[in-house]
Structures are given as structure tokens and as C-alpha cells.
Amino acid sequence: MKNTFPGRLAVAVILLGLFNFIAAAQARPRSLKRPMPIPQTEEVPSPTGQGFVVQDLFGGEIFGYGVDESGTEGLLSEALLEPGGNYTIATETFDQTTGRIIALVEVQLATQNNFVTLGVVGSHIGLREDEHVQGLYVVQRTYNVLNPLAGNRFTGAWLPPINNETQLFEDVEGNQGTPDVAVMASTDACCGRFVFGSNVAANLFGPIITLQDPILTQGVPPLLGYDSTTNQAVLSQAEGAPNTVPVVDLVNLTTRNITEFTGLGHGFVNGLAVDSGTGIACTTTESYLFPYQAEFYNLATQTGFVVDLPNIGEYAGATVANDPVNKLFLITHPVPAAPGEIHVYDENGNLIESLTGFPMGPGGATIALNPNTRTGFVLAAGRNGNLSGLQSFTY
User: Are residues 134 and 173 in the same domain?
Assistant: First the structure.
């Protein structure tokens, strides 16, 4: 794809020139942490679907993104492989209405480290994981916050009770506008997994709760959701055989109580999202015997039903996102080597619409939603032909 945006930005040219100088001198990685405003330029034309494309500054593959549902900014991190095997990594904020990059929050040059945006949580808080690499291995993970995101700068550290040497962070899920999130982590040695709650802004943490069912602690990790009304982590997974049925666990992050019930669908669970206002959850499952299924649960009654996704080939649905304002679930439906679709369902399982033309790849793509404006973002091919862009859409 032709470079229509960042190549003309003076800051990108300066930083890339600085990278070449440092790489030539074999200098140690350098991190620039002050926010750097980006000059305005014309809107990027969209290669597919509706809306515009958010093109990251350096054209590196995007590692995580999110949007502020009650604000105007989004957050992403990227990594660009440079000649010689090192990376340029960066975290940037962008305008949700135009796709323009607002600020280069931090960049590291000539490094093996990685930045991963974990999303936007609480009230306008951006959250990022930093992977510190030595040799071939991540030796330490640290976590930083932008509070508020619109400040375009890191303001402190988030310090979850995870031991870098023996435990691995896996996921964090929350509902914007409420202070708490659910966190999932596992042990390096087989087979342990645990969850806990956190108030990210206050850097506070609840009790660590060890999961008991081997289906959730061995093999493919479970999917994690969060019900802020009941303060419960919601987890689901199956053993993976085509005819296996998932289990669903409700973990009270205050009392430590775990309630498990038999779920719906067959095969692995690919996506999960929860509407805390109604207590409705939606999942997708993958089985060649029962292709393209989605499941809807009433978590209070532990009952539900299955719907068949539109048949665009016998491919499974992938990620799920919840719109709690309009009471909708959005499901990605990827097709290998071809454009996929995003299906919009109400919470009664009725298909509202299918959005077409999203080349999201066989693994699907995370949907970052702003329910207040009925807009969303998914990964898209950028100027280097890799996943260095975010495709915006409306629904």
C-alpha cells in the first residue's frame, strides 16, 4: 500500500534518521518518553469497508489498541523490524474521529523490547505492558498507565501481584466508567491459572483466586470477561475436541466463590464478552462438526441458547465485543486469505446487520468499540502490507 500519511511527518523522518545513526554506532537502546505532538495532515483514505484507516507512525505491526469510550482519543503500540534484526517500538495516541496520530507518547530505537497496549480501562486510563527482552526471552514485564489518556503521557506504574520469574500475565478485562478490572495470569510450570481484581487508578488489588477445573488450567487458555455489577470474572473454555462442550466459570473477585456450569456450543471458545448492565454474555465456539456458532447466556440463571452465524464458508466466529449502550454484541467472522465480516446481534440473538469487507485474517481481530458514537476499530493492512493500520467502521 502506498504511504499516504506518516512518511511526510517531520517527526518520523527525524526519529528514523536518529535510529539509523544509533544503529550504525551500535548504541544502547534509547527511549524518548515525552509526548510529541504530530503535525496535522489530510485524512487517510480507506482501502476497504467504511471509514478511514488509522496508520501508525513507523509502519510497524500493531500490538494492541483501545479507545476511550467517553473521550476522543485512542491508544496503540507498534513494532517495526529494522535491517539488522532490531526493532523500532512506539506507543501513540490517535483521534477517533479522523484517524490522525495525535502524539508519539514513547519510542525506543534499536531494541528487542516490545510495547503492548492492553486497552483503555476505568475512567480514561490507558494501560500498556512493556516486555523487556534479553537474548530470545522476555525476562521482565512492567505495566504503565496514561491517566488520563488525553494527557498523552505516562503518569505512573501499575504493579499487579505477578511474579515475573514464575508467572505470566495473560489478560485484563473491564468496563469503562467503572474503576475495577479482572486480571488473569498463569504459572510457568504446568498447570496453574489464577484471577484477581484491580482498581488500576488506585493501584489496588483483590485476593488471588486459583482456578480449579483442569479445562481452565491446562491446554488452551480460557477466555476472560468481567461483570462489574456482580464483580465477577467470567471464564469459558472447552477441552477442544469437536464435540466437547465448554464450561463457564463465574468467579467472585471479592468472596473468592467459584460457580461453574456447563456451557453451550462445541469445541474451543474463541471469543467472549459480557454486558454488565443486563448480565448477558456472548461467546463464539469453533468445531468442524458445528461450524460458525455463537452462544448467548443469562449469567444469573445460567441458561442460554445457540445461534448460527451467517454462512460465509464453514469458518468459526472469532472475537466478541459488547456495546452496553445499545445492547449489542459484535462478532468478527474471519475468512482465511479473504475479507471477513463483522456481525451485529442484539442480546436476544437477532442478527441486526453484517458488515463486509474486513481482511482481518484467519485469527480474527480485536474490536475496539465506542458505543456512544457507534464506531469501532479493527486491525487492517497498513503501508508496509502488515497489520500497521486500524480500520474504522460504523454500525
Answer: no
Decide if 132 is inside a domain: yes
Cα of first residue to Cα of last residue in the chain, in angstroms, is: 26
> Total domain count for the chain?
2
Per-residue DSSP letter, 156: E
For the stretch 249-283, pLDDT in tens is: 999 999 999 999 999 999 999 999 999 999 999 99
3-state secondary structure of 149: helix
Q: Is the peptide bond between 324 and the residue preceding it cis, with omega within 30 degrees of 0?
A: no
Give the SS3 label for residue 176: coil
Tell me: the pLDDT tens digits for 160-209? 999 999 999 999 999 999 999 999 999 988 889 999 999 999 999 999 99
Q: Is residue 389 part of a domain?
A: no
Q: Could you give the C-alpha distances from 377 to 52, 76, 125, 263, 381, in angstroms and in order?
A: 10, 11, 18, 29, 13
Element (H, E) at 216: helix 214-217
* Domain with 32 in it: 1-158
Q: What is the DSSP string of 147-161?
A: SSGGG-S--EEE--S
Per-residue confidence band for 66, with pLDDT thresholds at 50, 70 and 90: very high
Task: Give the whole-angstrom CA distance, residue 89 versus residue 56.
Answer: 11
Other CB atoms closer than 10 Å to residue 386's CB: what's the count?
A: 17
- What are the backbone angles phi and psi of residue 249, rounded to the nearest 5°? -110, 135
